[in-house]
Amino acid sequence: MEIETLMDNDLRTGDETSPMFLKEIEKSKISIIIFSDNYASSPWCLDELVRILECKRTQQQIVLPIFYKVDPSDVRKQTGTFGEALFNHERKFNDDTEKVLRWRAALREAVVLPGYLFDHGHVSQLIHRVSEHISQLLNRNYLKYEFNYPIEIECRVQDMHDLLGIGDPDVRMVGILGDGGMGKTTIAKAVYNSVAHKRHKIGVNSIVGRIQVMKNMMRRKRVLVVLDDVSRKNQLEKLVGEFNWFASGSRIIVTTRFEHVLDNYRVDLAYKVKKLEFDEALEVFSSNAFPSSRLPDDPDYEKLATRLEDVH
Q1: Is the Cβ–Cβ distance between 172 and 40 less than 8 Å?
Q2: Which residue in 73, 119, 265, 306 has its CB near the most CB atoms, within 10 A?
Q3: Is 76 exposed, middle or buried (0-12, 13-18, 19+ CB in 10 A)?
Q4: Which of 48, 259, 280, 302 is catalytic?
Q5: Which residues form the TIR domain (predicted)?
Q6: What is the pTM assigned to this prediction?
Q7: At what angle do helices 19-27 and 43-59 cross, to 10 degrees?
Q8: Which stretch of 45-59, 210-224, 238-252 has the lowest confidence by average pLDDT?
Q9: Is 283 a catalytic residue?
Q10: CA 93 to centroid of chain Cα atoms
């Protein structure tokens, strides 16, 4: 999943926050607020904070505050540099006292949100922690809204998680085996989406470029590779190469209809896709065919379902 970022100075013009930038805030899935020592001195930042919190209330936007060498109590109580800045704003905007009141209320609202406090250490460590957190949050929402998998698929994804052993230090290849139409690709996609934020993903156009990237970069990165619908052993040899290409903790998922493909290569474990029971298959079908994700309450549909069950 690609993450596009927008800095708060990308669209600023003049002395006020650009309307275009406020529109970009509304389109965002997550906003990061960095409270620094001089944060409250900027009307831009305070206007953006008000809009961000509006989006949190109306659009369920994720908001993550970071207190960068700032005491959260100064933000909440509006003391220290925050108190000084707001006092100056009250003098400057004495003809629009409601504006400053909105800013004060927004600061009190934001300070109680879960976030990060940074008062010492390396900034790179903070960036890494925040990046991991954001990836997990966005991936969780991506799965929730874009891939609303039926419980039957989730159970099979959990089985795959057990085989993959995410977090173990070895390099592991796991196969997904089953006939066409059994849901191998769907399971692989669901597994990928559930763990991809913990791995590096790289897209390469050519075979030569891919091999070079594999050899030069994969040894230093923990990766997740998914190979879908493999039919011959030599495909694995060309696409995966040797296990020593991969850094410790990497995982490779292979979906195939042919058991010999897995037997003839270094596939550690294989998950044989179980045939869905009729009720499970009907639920998966309904979730894709109907807006309500269930069979419509109609006698004709009930008759069709009964006939299908008899055939099944």
Answers
A1: no
A2: 265
A3: middle
A4: 48
A5: 1-111
A6: 0.51
A7: 30
A8: 210-224
A9: no
A10: 41
Only one residue has tokens 């069950």, namely 309
Full 3-state SS string of the chain: CCCCCCCCCCCCECCECCHHHHHHHHHCCEEEEEECCCHHHCHHHHHHHHHHHHHHHHHCCEEEEEEECCCHHHHHHCCHHHHHHHHHHHHHCCCCHHHHHHHHHHHHHHHCCCCEEECCCCHHHHHHHHHHHHHHHHHHHHHHHHCCCCHHHHHHHHHHHHHHCCCCCCCEEEEEECCCCCCHHHHHHHHHHHHHHHCECCCCCCHHHHHHHHHHHHHHCCEEEEECCCCCHHHHHHHCCCHHHCCCCCEEEEEECCHHHHHCCCCCEEEECCCCCHHHHHHHHHHHHCCCCCCCCCHHHHHHHHHHHHHC
